[in-house]
Amino acid sequence: MTQIPPGKDPQNASQPDPRDVRSADPTDSSTSPAPRDAARPGRPSAKVVDPDATLLHADKPVPSLDELRAAITWAFEAEEVAPALLDRFAEHALLVLQGNQRMNLTAILEPREVAAKHVLDSWRATRLLPLTGKRVLDLGSGAGYPGIPMALADSQTRVTLVDSMQKRAVFLEECLGQLGLANATAIAARGEDHLQKNRYDMVVMRSISSVRENVRLLRKVKHSIRDLVMLKGPAWSRETRAAEREAERLGFRLDTVWEHELPGEMGKRAILVYRAPGSQS
After folding, report:
1. What pLDDT is recorded for position 90?
2. What is the mean predicted confidence (pLDDT) over 237-245?
3. In the predicted model, what is the mean pLDDT of residues 115-126?
4. Which residues contact 219 (CB under 8 A, 6 or more apart)?
5. To 10 degrees, the CA torsion angle through 109, 113, 114, 120?
6. What is the mean pLDDT of the chain?
7. Which pTM was predicted?
8. Radius of gyration (C-alpha) of the chain in whole angstroms
9. With 90 as the cut, is the pLDDT of residue 33 above it?
């Protein structure tokens, strides 16, 4: 992995992988602006479309646990990690793809892509971030990445998984029960509402929105956060430049950037750490 001084641009930056449905879910009120309501005098209310009404992946076969475990072994080939932890990652990945049959959790379905783009990407953050003894909020958790791998990797980390959609929050709670994770909880809430009443050492956001939109989303609860961590794609530098003035105005300071590459030429990823106003209170 490469630690990059904030402000230094990588070459050939491109758009992040768009296939995690959370990166473009217009129904998630925790990250999208309120819809323009059509309920005006003389006009009917706008119809709300359930994103799970027509499942995109219900007809796709789910890989076996052995297939997922083999893919995770491949993805982690260059890493030092206990085989027992890889087993747990495979169990979670299977739960995600099974849950994907009844609700939209992810569009990444091929085992090696799941292993690299979801599991390895999440786990690498646990190697770089000081998690032990910390309270961590996975905001917009969706399928449980990166919050569940974080909780599996460090039993001394307290992780809260928050998703604004009730169905996903219920799915996350089921995952925690089946995995026997006592150091994690799942709740259905808008992230900014939850942070009005709760403080965290670290808030992690993955596949949510741009850096600029993320800091704007948290502007009213910025004193409830010590560190804001964003897992981004190869366009991270463009995003940080676009967000620079807004982040500075709101009191978020870019502290550290780690860039790493996924195996199988699946692209680059970056971990951005912003110091939030709550770190000074």
Report:
1. 98
2. 95
3. 97
4. 250
5. -170
6. 85
7. 0.81
8. 18
9. no
Distance of CA 15 to CAs 26, 41, 177, Å? Answer: 19, 42, 36
| 163-181 b/e (C-beta count within 10 Å ≥ 16 → b) | bbbebbbebbbebbeebeb
- Strand partners for 274: 228, 254
Helix axes 65-75 and 83-99, enclosed angle (nearest 10): 130
* The token pair that represents 66 in the structure block: 């052995």
The kind and range of the H/E element at 170 are helix 166-179
Mean pLDDT across 89-117: 96
Sheet holding 200-206, edge to edge: 2-4, 253-261, 268-275, 225-232, 200-206, 135-139, 158-163, 184-188
Residue 82's CB is within 10 A of a number of other CB atoms, namely 9
Residue type, 149: P
Residues, the chain, total?
281
Tokens 């919050």 locate to 147
Return the domain boundaries, the chain: 63-280
Residue 23 in contact with residue 16, Cβ under 8 Å? yes
pLDDT at 36 over 50: no
CATH superfamily of 63-280: Vaccinia Virus protein VP39 (3.40.50.150)
